Amino acid sequence: MRKINILSKNIYNRIAAGEVIDRPYSAVKELIENSLDAGATQIEIYIEQGGKQLIKVVDNGSGIERDDLCIAFTPHATSKISCVEDLDRITTLGFRGEALASISVIAKVEIVSVTQGNSAYKVYCEDGNPGEVKPAALEKGTTVTVRNLFYNTPVRAKFMKADKKEEADITSFVMRYILAHPKVSFSYFIDGKLTLQSFGGGLEEGLAQVYGAKTLSQCFKIDAEKDGIHIYGFIGNQNFFKPNRTYQSVFLNGRYIVNNTIATAISNAYSSYAMKRQYPFYVLNINVPLEIVDVNVHPNKADVRFVDNRHVFGVVYTIISAVLDGTTRAAEFVVSETRVPEIKSTSDNGVNKVYSDKKPDVDEEIKNIIAKYIPTEEQPVKPQKPAQTPKYFNPEVDLPLDEYMAVHKPDRQLSVSDESAIFPEFASTRADEIETAYFKNKQERIEYKSLKYKGNLFNTYLIFEVEDNVYFVDQHAAHERLLYDKLKVKLQERYVIRQPLLEPYLFFASPEEKRFLDENIIVLRKMGFNIAPFGLEAYRIDEVPADLWNINIKDFFTEILSCIDELKEIKLEEVLKDKIATTACKHAIKGGKKLADNEIESLIKMIDGNFGLKCPHGRPICVCMNKKDFEKMFKRIV
Question: How far apart are CA 160 and CA 149, in angstroms?
């Protein structure tokens, strides 16, 4: 009996559609690219419910002939290539003839189009079957309306993200098309509201529209050509970094791509300037000869393949590193009318100069760099210098915690947030549970009065004797744990008290960051940050947690937004744990500080014999050795 089935057109078209159109942003991408290939200079994009309910793209391009309207829904029907040789020299964004056919079998599609000198016509298509071509009203170009995406493929529909997530991904792609085609006017509407608009005034205008005008002053504008490769656009200066990779855009011959060779070359050019969890900002257009690149390697054309990766890597690295390092060759690559941010390098007479001569020519170095980095390995980044910590210890007030909390009280009247702002996981914690958690790691309890102080090692480790045992107590780790536990209890038992800021803190967010913040905004408010959207692409913070009033807001939110790359969620308890652990570490007595007798007594009294505790970073506060251990060390016993 035959077991091999020949699939029907209806089945294999749906299978193929899933490869090309996997989510709403894929449909938006394909329709915008069709408009650009048609020569449109004005494009309007409308979405509703994250593109699930409606996607509409309106352009003023060349339009579709009446006789081609139905053919346009046929798989592999395209006007962009006609023979196999054309695949070697693809100049358009689309070329396979799959997009419209794929969309039409998983959604309800209507096309209205008009060509110059002719009347407008429309056609409706459902399940891949176009209906009758009818007269319509349209002055110029084409309007494609897509409704109910994946309505007939419920399994695929289940894998779509929430409306806001789909919306963020679509917004991200629209922003990148504004940057890739800055001479085209874009208008982008979400649920009827104008969200993004560009006017076709060039790359500077497009960059200002997408990322804000202030971004321009923190970038180098470059225009360079080397070995047949043309690179132009904007790269962030040596001090301008972002917390994730969502601010990185590369357009190859006008097509947005994510390519490891190019990304690694840029990353390594910045490696001597970037700290951990810092990512460079760049919007780069790279034009290469058509014969050295293959764009037909990915279903949605997201990546490309180069004939010689090493050559492309070397050119990109040479240009970016020359500009950042300030070599004499940088003048060839930086656009003269754009002010070049000063590169800090000190000459013999102590005067800052713009260009350093530490790298007169990077070509020789490129050979070694390419060999090392053409894989995916990245250079190690410089570690951050630890911040200085306070130097005080006052046992008179039961360790410095109470003094610390008193000093850091707000200097003005504060409002207590309502019950909805109480930490739910902390509010339900009973006193006995806190007590149990505090002692869960303890060893056998030791009555602190039985401890006999015998001295210290290196002004860091306090030595105590009890019968046949010797205890070495790390004074910093012990004090850090005590401070941490007290801060933790205060946080667990508190209502959220907020400290108003003298000036609100404003920051820009990319679409991915905006979606991430919107999902976690309740968590951030429960933490004590009064955060709210400010305009379309920014957030405003005017209150912070009172007990973390001296927090560096920029660093805090940089750390929060770095979670995007790992697709993490903000876990309130973990964030608070990290912050109070840092606070405890900074205010604990330091190793190397000699303590007075009353300070030692106060510290040990507070430990209360719980020598099995660990500091918030996991280090033990105490190590025990008995008499037998010492006698073995000195060979008294075997």
Answer: 10
Are the C-beta atoms of residues 43 and 57 closer than 8 Å to each other? yes
Q: What is the DSSP letter of 566?
A: G
Q: Please name every residue paired with 242 in a beta bridge, in sequence order, or none if there are none.
A: 279
DSSP string, 57-120: EEE-S----GGGTTGGGSTT--SS--SGGGGGS--SS--SS-HHHHHHHHSEEEEEEE-TTS-E
CA distance 3 to 276: 56
Residue 86's identity, in one-letter code, is D
The 10 Å Cβ neighbour count of residue 133 is 16
Q: How many CA atoms lie within 13 A of 37 on its CB side?
A: 20
Residue 638's CB is within 10 A of a number of other CB atoms, namely 5
546 versus 110: the higher-pLDDT residue is: 110
Question: Is the separation of the CB atoms in 220 and 331 below 8 Å?
Answer: no
pLDDT of residue 183: 93
The angle that helices 99-106 and 9-20 make with each other, rounded to 10 degrees, is 110
Beta-carbon-side half-sphere exposure of residue 366 (alpha carbons within 13 Å): 19
pLDDT digits 0-9 by tens, 358-398? 333 445 555 555 555 454 434 443 333 333 333 333 333 33
The one-letter amino acid at 229? I
Q: CB count, 10 Å around CB of 227?
A: 10
Specify the amino acid at residue 481. Answer: R
Tens of pLDDT, residues 525-579: 877 889 998 877 789 999 988 766 667 888 888 877 876 655 455 565 566 677 6
CA–CA gap between residue 138 and residue 110 (Å, rounded): 13
Strands 282-287 and 248-252: parallel
* Residue 238: predicted pLDDT: 92
CA distance 411 to 269: 47
Q: Over the stretch 52-94, which tens digit does the pLDDT of each residue have? A: 999 999 999 999 989 888 888 876 656 554 455 545 555 556 5
**Residue partners of 405: CB distance under 8 A and separation at least 6:** 490, 547
Q: What is the pLDDT of residue 3?
A: 60
Confidence of residue 297 (pLDDT cuts 50, 70, 90): low
Query: How many residues comprise the chain?
Result: 638
User: How high is the pLDDT of residue 61?
Assistant: 93
At 241, list the tokens: 């970094």
Greatest mean pLDDT among 35-44, 327-336, 415-424 lies in 35-44
In order, the DSSP letters of 207-272 are HHHHH-GGGGGGEEEEEEEETTEEEEEEEE-TT-EESSGGGEEEEETTEEE--HHHHHHHHHHSTT
State the sign of the Cα–Cα–Cα–Cα dihedral 224, 229, 234, 239.
negative
Contact indicator for 461, 448 with CB cutoff of 8 Å: no
Torsion over CA: 130, 134, 140, 143 (sign):
negative
**Is residue 513 within 8 Å of residue 246, measured between CB atoms?**
yes
- Integer Cα distance of 137 and 123 in angstroms: 12
Query: What string of DSSP letters covers 118-181?
Result: S-EEEEEEETTEE---EEE--SSEEEEEEESTTTT-HHHHHTS--HHHHHHHHHHHHHHHHHH-
Residue 554 belongs to what H/E stretch?
helix 553-561
What is the model's pTM?
A: 0.61
Euclidean distance between CA atoms 89 and 292, whole angstroms: 10
With a CB cutoff of 8 Å and minimum separation 6, the contacts of 597 are: 453
Mean pLDDT of the chain: 76
